[in-house]
Amino acid sequence: MQRGMNTPPARFDAREASKWFFRHGHTAWLGLRFADQGENWVELELPWREDLLGDRSRPVLASGPIISLMDMASGMAIWQASRTFNPVATLDLRVDYQRPARERASVLGRVECYRRTRSAAFVRGIAHDGDPDDPVAHVAGVFMTIAADPRKENPALGGSAGND
Amino acid sequence: MTDAHSAQELTAYARSLGIKVVGEDTGMPLLSVDFGPNVEGRPAHFHGGATAGLLEAAGYAALRNALLAQGRDPKLKPINITVQYLAAGKSKPAYALGRITRLGRRNVNIAVEAWQDDRSRPIATAVMNILMG
């Protein structure tokens, strides 16, 4: 991926990157916000919204947007841990739902990248609605790092941006 | 509204994302979402979260369909979902279909596949476990 107007500065900082990431596309539609960060973790907020409900009988967030929240927090935790914005592709993401989020509550997703190898990054985290000790969900994921090959795009990237 | 349609009722989240029931396959609702800003991650590609949302919606649609056939309407408690990403989702419509692997009295296990042009080349799969109260 070429570094350009749409990519954050070389030294990755989740707080700064959020200004780019959440302006467009799926994450903008969800209304994701930056919440907090550490050396190898990032916390994002998914604000409560009427049209993201997942239950006909109660005003609680659907589980789908919680997966999006955790997927995004996972990618950003990997970049935070590596200090660089290198494209990664999700291989496997598992979400264990502990309980429904509280009614009309925003959900926070905190994910840490606990291990990076040359080709893979491992993440784990929780989604909570105010008390990190009483999570809504636990997540675990594996991401593939995508090495830029100038001769040929990695098939996992699906070709260069915008060519299809 | 017919029973078949109520079985295909989608959540507010799924409708808002642009997910639609576009047909039926092997007795299960076939869901689709067009490519657009709502689902875009990297430029011109699906966001993994949007793909997961489509898979999950198809899983629930399949389950509601199966429960309706048995005349059941239990409260659903999601336990987990594991999503495998197999290929990048490109800037064209994506489809998903759920299959009930095992439907018991208290638990159900559902397998879901999502694809774009070529059904035999899924872009993502999911396994979901749901408890029923």
From TrEMBL, chain B:
It comes from the Bacteria. SUPFAM superfamilies: Thioesterase/thiol ester dehydrase-isomerase (SSF54637). Residues 45-128 form the Acyl-CoA thioesterase-like N-terminal HotDog domain. Pfam families: 4HBT_3 (PF13622). InterPro entries: HotDog_dom_sf (IPR029069), TesB_ACOT8-like_N (IPR049449). This is PaaI family thioesterase. It comes from Erythrobacter fulvus.
